[in-house]
Amino acid sequence: MKFPCFAAAVLFLASCAPDKSTPENILMTNPLTADFEAPFAVPPFGKIKTEHFLPAVKASITEKEAQIDEIVTEADAPSFANTVLALEESGRNLERASGIFSNLNSAHTNDEMQKLAREISPMLSAHRDNVLLNDMLFERLKAVYDRRDKLGLNDEEKALLEDKYKTFTRSGALLNSEDKARLREINARLSLLTTDFGQNVLAETNNFRLFIEDEGNLKGLSTAYKKAAAEKAADKGREGTFLITLDNPSVMPFLQSADNRALRKKVWEAYVNRGNNGNAEDNNEIIAEITQLRAERAALLGYADHAAYVLEESMAGSTSRVDELTEQIWAPALRSAKAEAKQFSEMIEASGDTFALMPWDWRYCESKLRREKYSLDSEAVRAYFSAENVGQGIFEVCRRLYGITFEEIRDVPVYHEDVTAYEVKEADGAHIGVLFVDLYARPSKRGGAWMTSYRKQEKVDENRIAPLISIVCNFTPPSGDEPSLLTFDEVTTYFHEFGHALHGLLSDVRFRSMSGTSVYRDFVELPSQVLENWATAPEVLKIYAKHYRTGESIPDALIEKLEASSTFGEGFATTEYMASVILDMAYHTRTSGIDLKAVDFEKDVMREAGLPESIVPRHRSTYFNHIFAGGYSSNYYSYIWSAVLDADAFRAFTETGDLFDAETARRFRKYILSKGGTEDPMKLYVKFRGTEPDIAPLLERRGLAESSSYAQ
């Protein structure tokens, strides 16, 4: 073939070359969706750049919409295979790309990623609506659902079909076209508002910096704390000063131990007023709009309120069940908190001070009285809980319970130098999955602790696809030659998140949408909270609690003090938590949005509930990420619901006289950890325990039973 000129030849060749901008080529080359790295097919974190996120999400949305078109234009009659299974199989690349973006935006974000989140979030919301409000797709799904009893499906297939059908109907598939259009608008707006809420909280947390020049103002705080605060100040160019921030490893020890009451108040007020400062990061108006839109959406879908909508898919099932549980716990918790307050006031008076107990005094007074009453020094306790030793202790507990092991792997990419990867294996060496552990606080990480996944477990052609699980915490980083030392609360947090990790790792189901933690919110906390029990067991403490300098095991006398003080402060802890439960339900049992400022609404709700002025909810409205930026709206009660389950479940072990009883552990793994969302959770619990749970073990554990000293 002859070309008239070189330019024409170039144009011809360009027209013949593959278009690298097509979705197919983007997905083949983008590190978020291309083949993951051997040997465990983990994300190639080192190759992922911010510029990769948007193209990957856009291309994978286009791909999934094409897959949906194939389902709805299928010539054959709707069947489980060509409709339900095809729907389950669709969107793998989208799940992968959006999941990596979401995980990194939480654990290691930057300004550019946060800006992208405001673009990607409504994009994903619109796509979800495009699928769930697709009339032709729902028609096919309904055709299969209506014949479900005649299809010879096994239990997992029936559960998948039921789940898909309910997801569509609960997402508006039965609405008329006008209501569907309004629902799309609501969902798009909510996706932006919840993103903005979380970003505002992170900004407010990072923006506060208190530089203290006079070391005398840090009286009461440990040498290690002051050293870390000095290093943080030096990193900001303020040598010779001490930096206090609102990260948990900084703010909580300060509130517990700083003798300077005026500074405690200043730090406390900064902490509880995050999102309530009348600035660009103020969340009051966002809360009002979120609650209004959630109420409107619930009404559109035929529910009394947002809580009724949410709780339909829960073990509780209704607001009345949540209210019933709240009533059972609120009164004894409040009674216990008031008894604690009386002791603190007496201690203040005995010391010669005249001030009334205020919220910024609670943790300080509790820490001081704990030392006096039990001779328990929190800093002396921390010396036995280096993050490394606690982690090894958790590994040993898991080995004894389930026969599994954790082996560090260094030849896989991670997204930050603080992250450690482990291969998880069965006792016979069979591969279970990979666990990423990210423990330390940093400005690029949102607050709190959580578990997530980069790949869920599933089975393809009877072959088990291994999960990629991650746990993320905000502990104090190592400093100089001193390791990360955890408070006892942080120890239980580590165990807690590891329990979630086990739920994801030990999943053994067919469909990824039902694997691991894909269960009701008030059931998902059972595996996490039950593992906390081993953290505090004396025989387990002897395994992992070693002094970070001497290697000496924790002394029996110190264990006895920890046991003796185990219910100390539970009145306050349970009351501040339950206050947040009450607040969550108050927002979401309304049929319209709030008609006053969020912080004023909160005050009214707390006043009506009888919360003392010296206590505030664990999560005040303007930084309540769980319900306004996470997945716990109308579901924050789930921690206490699961606490009832976990206290009763742990009793199944103690009743045997062996915390590592093999048969009990086998049943817990089989019926709780491996089943995901394939069966009704209460039925699974009864299979494990033999009966439904009893609330008595929880009240006894927390010292809230009528017979406890604080309950008098």
Which terms would index this structure?
alpha+beta; 712 residues; disordered C terminus; two-stranded antiparallel ribbon; 29 helices; Neurolysin, domain 3; 5-stranded mixed beta sheet; disordered N terminus; 56% helix
- Work out the strand percent: 5-15%
Task: Specify the overall morphology.
Answer: globular
CATH class of the largest domain: Mainly Alpha
Number of distinct helices = 29
Average pLDDT rating: 93
Gap between N and C termini: 99 Å
Q: Uncertain runs with pLDDT below 50, 5 residues or more?
A: 1-18, 707-712
Radius of gyration, CA atoms, in whole angstroms = 27 Å
State the CATH topology of the largest domain.
Neurolysin, domain 3
Q: Residue share in helices?
A: 55-70%
Based on the structure given, which CATH architecture of the largest domain is correct?
Answer: Orthogonal Bundle
Looking across the biggest beta sheet, what order are the strands in?
Answer: 3-4-5-9-6
Q: Mind sketching the topology for me?
A:
Layout: H1 6-16, H2 23-29, H3 50-72, H4 80-89, H5 92-107, H6 111-132, H7 135-146, H8 155-170, H9 177-207, E1 210-212, H10 223-235, E2 242-244, H11 248-257, H12 261-272, H13 284-300, H14 306-311, H15 319-350, H16 362-374, H17 378-382, H18 387-402, E3 405-409, E4 420-425, E5 431-440, E6 450-455, E7 458-460, E8 463-465, E9 468-475, H19 488-505, H20 521-536, H21 538-544, H22 556-564, H23 570-588, H24 598-609, H25 625-628, H26 638-654, H27 662-673, H28 681-689, H29 696-701
Parallel strand pairs: 5-9
Antiparallel strand pairs: 1-2, 3-4, 4-5, 6-9, 7-8
